[in-house]
Amino acid sequence: xxxxxxxxxxxxxxxxxxxxxxxxxxxxxxxxxxxxxxxxxxxxxxxxxxxxxxxxxxxxxxxxxxxxxxxxxxxxxxxxxxxxxxxxxxxxxxxxxxxxxxxxxxxxxxxxx
Amino acid sequence: xxxxxxxxxxxxxxxxxxxxxxxxxxxxxxxxxxxxxxxxxxxxxxxxxxxxxxxxxxxxxxxxxxxxxxxxxxxxxxxxxxxxxxxxxxxxxxxxxxxxxxxxxxxxxxxxx
Lengths: 113, 113
What we know:
The structure holds two protein chains of two kinds. By secondary structure, chain A is mainly beta. Helices cover about 0% and strands about 55% of the residues of chain A. Chain A has no helices and twelve strands. In chain A, the strands form three sheets. In chain A, strands 2, 5, 6, 10, 11 and 12 form a six-stranded mixed beta sheet that branches. In chain A, strands 3-9-8-7 form a four-stranded antiparallel beta sheet, with no helix packed on it. In chain A, a hairpin with a 1-residue loop joins strand 10 (about 85-95) and strand 11. The relative contact order of chain A is 0.33. Chain B is built from no helices and eleven strands. By secondary structure, chain B is mainly beta. In chain B, strands 2, 4, 5, 6, 9, 10 and 11 form a seven-stranded mixed beta sheet that branches. A four-stranded antiparallel beta sheet of chain B has the order 1-3-8-7, with no helix packed on it. The model of chain B has no long low-confidence stretch (mean pLDDT about 90). Helices cover about 0% and strands about 55% of the residues of chain B. In chain B, strand 7 and strand 8 (about 75-80) form a beta hairpin. At the A-B interface, strand 6, strand 10 and strand 11 of A face strand 5, strand 9 and strand 10 of B.
Protein backbone atom coordinates (compact mmCIF):
# COMPACT_ATOMS: atom_id res chain seq x y z
CA UNK A 1 0.00 0.00 0.00
CA UNK A 2 0.91 3.66 -0.13
CA UNK A 3 3.16 5.03 2.58
CA UNK A 4 5.06 8.12 3.68
CA UNK A 5 8.36 8.17 5.56
CA UNK A 6 9.71 11.27 7.29
CA UNK A 7 13.03 11.90 8.94
CA UNK A 8 13.12 11.02 12.58
CA UNK A 9 12.78 13.85 15.02
CA UNK A 10 13.07 15.77 17.12
CA UNK A 11 14.94 18.44 15.18
CA UNK A 12 16.40 21.37 17.12
CA UNK A 13 17.80 24.43 15.37
CA UNK A 14 18.81 27.96 16.22
CA UNK A 15 16.84 30.92 14.91
CA UNK A 16 17.74 31.90 11.30
CA UNK A 17 19.15 28.43 10.54
CA UNK A 18 18.32 26.60 7.31
CA UNK A 19 15.73 23.86 7.68
CA UNK A 20 15.26 20.62 5.75
CA UNK A 21 12.81 17.92 6.78
CA UNK A 22 13.05 14.90 4.51
CA UNK A 23 9.99 13.09 3.21
CA UNK A 24 9.84 10.15 0.81
CA UNK A 25 6.82 8.24 -0.35
CA UNK A 26 5.73 4.99 -1.92
CA UNK A 27 2.65 5.13 -4.09
CA UNK A 28 0.96 3.62 -7.09
CA UNK A 29 -0.21 6.15 -9.59
CA UNK A 30 0.34 9.88 -9.18
CA UNK A 31 -0.65 11.10 -5.74
CA UNK A 32 -0.81 14.70 -4.62
CA UNK A 33 1.60 15.59 -1.82
CA UNK A 34 1.08 17.79 1.22
CA UNK A 35 2.82 19.24 4.24
CA UNK A 36 0.76 19.91 7.34
CA UNK A 37 1.85 21.71 10.51
CA UNK A 38 0.52 21.18 14.03
CA UNK A 39 1.16 23.86 16.64
CA UNK A 40 0.88 22.91 20.33
CA UNK A 41 -2.69 22.19 21.40
CA UNK A 42 -4.06 22.56 17.88
CA UNK A 43 -5.19 20.42 14.97
CA UNK A 44 -3.26 20.09 11.74
CA UNK A 45 -3.13 22.99 9.28
CA UNK A 46 -2.33 22.67 5.60
CA UNK A 47 1.04 24.33 4.98
CA UNK A 48 1.57 23.64 1.27
CA UNK A 49 0.81 21.14 -1.45
CA UNK A 50 1.88 19.97 -4.91
CA UNK A 51 -0.27 18.04 -7.31
CA UNK A 52 2.11 16.85 -10.02
CA UNK A 53 5.77 16.15 -10.68
CA UNK A 54 8.11 19.17 -10.53
CA UNK A 55 5.44 21.34 -8.91
CA UNK A 56 6.74 23.50 -6.07
CA UNK A 57 4.44 24.27 -3.18
CA UNK A 58 5.25 27.30 -1.03
CA UNK A 59 3.79 29.17 1.92
CA UNK A 60 5.12 31.31 4.80
CA UNK A 61 8.70 30.93 3.53
CA UNK A 62 8.46 27.13 3.38
CA UNK A 63 8.93 25.28 0.09
CA UNK A 64 8.75 21.70 -1.15
CA UNK A 65 9.21 20.31 -4.66
CA UNK A 66 7.46 17.17 -5.92
CA UNK A 67 10.30 14.94 -7.18
CA UNK A 68 8.90 11.91 -8.96
CA UNK A 69 12.30 10.49 -9.86
CA UNK A 70 13.37 10.31 -6.20
CA UNK A 71 9.80 9.95 -4.79
CA UNK A 72 10.52 12.80 -2.42
CA UNK A 73 8.88 15.97 -1.13
CA UNK A 74 11.40 17.53 1.25
CA UNK A 75 10.35 20.60 3.23
CA UNK A 76 12.78 23.55 3.33
CA UNK A 77 12.95 27.01 4.81
CA UNK A 78 15.86 29.38 4.46
CA UNK A 79 15.68 31.08 7.85
CA UNK A 80 13.55 29.62 10.63
CA UNK A 81 11.94 31.54 13.48
CA UNK A 82 10.99 30.54 17.00
CA UNK A 83 7.35 30.64 15.88
CA UNK A 84 8.04 27.78 13.43
CA UNK A 85 8.35 25.38 16.36
CA UNK A 86 5.71 22.72 15.74
CA UNK A 87 5.20 19.18 14.45
CA UNK A 88 5.34 18.80 10.66
CA UNK A 89 3.55 16.03 8.78
CA UNK A 90 4.13 14.94 5.22
CA UNK A 91 1.16 13.28 3.49
CA UNK A 92 0.01 11.91 0.18
CA UNK A 93 -3.49 11.57 -1.16
CA UNK A 94 -4.92 8.41 -2.58
CA UNK A 95 -8.34 7.93 -4.01
CA UNK A 96 -10.27 4.84 -3.08
CA UNK A 97 -13.75 6.25 -3.11
CA UNK A 98 -13.34 9.23 -0.83
CA UNK A 99 -10.09 11.15 -0.96
CA UNK A 100 -7.84 9.70 1.72
CA UNK A 101 -4.62 11.14 3.11
CA UNK A 102 -1.79 8.89 4.23
CA UNK A 103 0.42 10.66 6.78
CA UNK A 104 4.00 10.25 7.81
CA UNK A 105 4.79 9.91 11.49
CA UNK A 106 5.49 13.61 11.99
CA UNK A 107 8.71 15.49 12.80
CA UNK A 108 8.89 17.69 15.87
CA UNK A 109 10.82 20.91 15.23
CA UNK A 110 12.09 23.17 18.00
CA UNK A 111 13.68 26.53 17.22
CA UNK A 112 15.79 28.14 19.94
CA UNK A 113 16.29 31.92 20.09
CA UNK B 1 -18.51 30.69 11.35
CA UNK B 2 -16.13 29.01 8.94
CA UNK B 3 -13.79 26.04 9.16
CA UNK B 4 -14.11 22.85 11.17
CA UNK B 5 -15.26 23.15 14.79
CA UNK B 6 -14.91 20.38 17.36
CA UNK B 7 -16.54 20.26 20.77
CA UNK B 8 -15.68 19.80 23.51
CA UNK B 9 -12.00 20.79 23.42
CA UNK B 10 -11.26 18.69 26.49
CA UNK B 11 -13.11 15.72 27.96
CA UNK B 12 -12.42 13.56 30.99
CA UNK B 13 -14.58 10.48 31.32
CA UNK B 14 -14.74 7.34 33.40
CA UNK B 15 -14.63 3.91 31.83
CA UNK B 16 -18.34 3.37 32.39
CA UNK B 17 -19.47 6.72 30.97
CA UNK B 18 -21.10 7.45 27.63
CA UNK B 19 -20.15 10.65 25.86
CA UNK B 20 -20.13 12.07 22.35
CA UNK B 21 -17.68 14.18 20.40
CA UNK B 22 -19.10 16.63 17.90
CA UNK B 23 -17.67 18.03 14.69
CA UNK B 24 -19.18 20.68 12.44
CA UNK B 25 -17.92 22.00 9.13
CA UNK B 26 -19.16 25.07 7.29
CA UNK B 27 -17.03 24.67 4.20
CA UNK B 28 -19.51 22.85 1.96
CA UNK B 29 -17.32 19.75 1.97
CA UNK B 30 -18.83 16.35 1.24
CA UNK B 31 -16.44 14.05 3.12
CA UNK B 32 -15.63 13.92 6.84
CA UNK B 33 -13.11 11.93 8.84
CA UNK B 34 -12.19 10.92 12.37
CA UNK B 35 -8.51 10.49 13.28
CA UNK B 36 -6.92 9.40 16.54
CA UNK B 37 -3.60 10.97 17.55
CA UNK B 38 -1.77 9.27 20.42
CA UNK B 39 1.58 10.25 21.84
CA UNK B 40 4.49 8.83 19.84
CA UNK B 41 2.20 7.07 17.34
CA UNK B 42 1.28 7.97 13.77
CA UNK B 43 -2.09 9.48 13.02
CA UNK B 44 -4.66 6.69 12.86
CA UNK B 45 -7.57 7.01 10.46
CA UNK B 46 -10.68 5.72 12.21
CA UNK B 47 -13.67 6.47 10.01
CA UNK B 48 -14.42 8.08 6.66
CA UNK B 49 -17.80 9.40 5.55
CA UNK B 50 -18.44 10.43 1.97
CA UNK B 51 -21.79 11.94 1.08
CA UNK B 52 -23.01 10.91 4.55
CA UNK B 53 -22.27 7.24 4.00
CA UNK B 54 -19.55 5.46 5.91
CA UNK B 55 -16.98 4.31 3.40
CA UNK B 56 -14.24 3.17 5.72
CA UNK B 57 -13.98 1.70 9.17
CA UNK B 58 -10.39 0.81 10.02
CA UNK B 59 -10.93 -2.04 12.46
CA UNK B 60 -11.97 0.35 15.17
CA UNK B 61 -13.36 -1.24 18.36
CA UNK B 62 -17.12 -1.12 18.69
CA UNK B 63 -16.87 1.10 21.77
CA UNK B 64 -16.39 3.89 19.18
CA UNK B 65 -19.53 4.53 17.15
CA UNK B 66 -19.63 7.25 14.47
CA UNK B 67 -22.70 9.05 13.20
CA UNK B 68 -23.03 11.42 10.25
CA UNK B 69 -26.59 12.81 10.16
CA UNK B 70 -25.83 15.29 7.36
CA UNK B 71 -22.87 16.56 5.39
CA UNK B 72 -22.07 19.29 7.94
CA UNK B 73 -22.05 17.23 11.14
CA UNK B 74 -20.12 14.25 12.40
CA UNK B 75 -20.28 12.63 15.82
CA UNK B 76 -18.20 10.05 17.61
CA UNK B 77 -20.14 8.26 20.34
CA UNK B 78 -18.02 6.78 23.09
CA UNK B 79 -18.94 4.11 25.65
CA UNK B 80 -17.05 1.86 28.05
CA UNK B 81 -13.70 3.21 26.94
CA UNK B 82 -10.31 2.05 28.17
CA UNK B 83 -7.44 4.19 29.49
CA UNK B 84 -5.48 3.46 26.28
CA UNK B 85 -8.20 5.30 24.37
CA UNK B 86 -6.93 8.55 25.87
CA UNK B 87 -5.74 10.63 22.91
CA UNK B 88 -6.42 13.68 20.77
CA UNK B 89 -9.35 12.98 18.44
CA UNK B 90 -9.23 15.01 15.26
CA UNK B 91 -12.04 15.63 12.83
CA UNK B 92 -11.35 16.69 9.25
CA UNK B 93 -13.35 17.45 6.15
CA UNK B 94 -12.57 17.61 2.46
CA UNK B 95 -14.13 18.12 -0.91
CA UNK B 96 -14.16 14.70 -2.45
CA UNK B 97 -13.30 15.92 -5.92
CA UNK B 98 -9.80 17.25 -6.42
CA UNK B 99 -6.57 17.10 -4.42
CA UNK B 100 -7.44 19.79 -1.92
CA UNK B 101 -6.30 17.99 1.18
CA UNK B 102 -8.15 18.16 4.46
CA UNK B 103 -9.26 20.93 6.76
CA UNK B 104 -8.83 19.83 10.37
CA UNK B 105 -10.55 20.88 13.55
CA UNK B 106 -8.56 21.70 16.69
CA UNK B 107 -9.36 18.32 18.19
CA UNK B 108 -10.84 16.98 21.41
CA UNK B 109 -8.32 15.97 24.08
CA UNK B 110 -9.87 12.88 25.68
CA UNK B 111 -8.70 11.43 28.97
CA UNK B 112 -10.20 8.15 30.18
CA UNK B 113 -9.81 7.55 33.91
